Amino acid sequence: MIAHIERYVKIRKKTALIEQLKNYGCVIQIDAESFSGDADFFMRHACRKILKNRLADIVASDCHDQKRRPPGLSTAYRIISEEYDATYAEQLFWHNPQAVVFGNRIGG
């Protein structure tokens, strides 16, 4: 799994490279706060491009505590459901994470 792929400046702009990583079997995770929270413009833009191209497999949170860095998952879920589609949101937030936990292949 490649966590927080939007934070890797040399990778986040290159959708072909992200596609190649996925073809190698990497699971691509983006952080909920990186596109729906206080992240900088470039990180938000990278996340939206990754989502638009359906390259993300999981959206998770880098939550360290409820006050300073709350998870923001419900906001991220709502945004993805509205801007991309509800089926993709369900994959990112439920089906794919569950597959990882149980050691199954991700559907998509």
Q: What structural class do helix, strand and pairing data support?
A: mainly alpha
Mean pLDDT: 88
Strand order, largest beta sheet? 1-2
Question: What fraction of residues sit in β-strands?
Answer: 5-15%
What's this model, at a glance?
This protein has 108 residues and is mainly alpha-helical. The protein has six helices and two strands, in the order H-H-E-H-H-E-H-H.
Account of the protein in words:
With 108 residues, the chain is mostly helical. 53% of the residues lie in helices and 6% in strands. It has helices spanning 9-12, 15-23, 32-36, 41-52, 73-83, 86-101; strands at 29-31, 58-60. A two-stranded parallel ribbon has the order 1-2. Helix 5 (73-83) packs across helix 6 (86-101). The longest helix is centred in the last third of the chain and has 16 residues, at 86-101.
